Amino acid sequence: MPTVVRIGSYRFFFYAGDRDEPRHIHVEREIAVSKFWLVPVRLQHSNGFGRSELVKVENLVVAHSEKMKEAWNDYFAN
Fold first, then answer.
1. The predicted structure's pLDDT at residue 1
2. In which element (H, E) is residue 29 found?
3. What is the full per-residue pLDDT of the chain (78 aa) written as tens digits?
4. H/E element holding 7?
């Protein structure tokens, strides 16, 4: 599970087995988890995050989406 970035209490990562899916990022904080597609950025699913916190997390994904897409491309380049 490569961690792309940590921001505050959030960890943004993807799984090594995610290669066959469109580019996306998983986000976790304690027991809350979510998954965002990166192109375009949109929520795929979430469990444990409230609505206002999801807005905050989505804004973080948007702000760091280029780094996240680059990390995805670098990791799955083979």
1. 75
2. strand 24-29
3. 789 999 999 999 999 999 999 999 999 999 999 999 999 999 999 999 999 999 999 999 999 999 999 999 999 986
4. strand 3-7
Strand partners, 24: 37
Is 58:9 a contact under the CB 8 Å cutoff?
Answer: no
Burial class (CB in 10 A: 0-12, 13-18, 19+), 42: exposed
pTM value surpassing 0.90: yes
Secondary structure percentages of the chain, helix, strand, coil, to 5:
35, 35, 25
Count CB neighbours of 35 within 10 A.
Answer: 16
Phi, psi dihedrals of residue 52, rounded to the nearest 5°:
-70, -35
Q: Which residues contact 35 (CB under 8 A, 6 or more apart)?
A: 24, 25, 26, 27, 43, 44, 45, 46
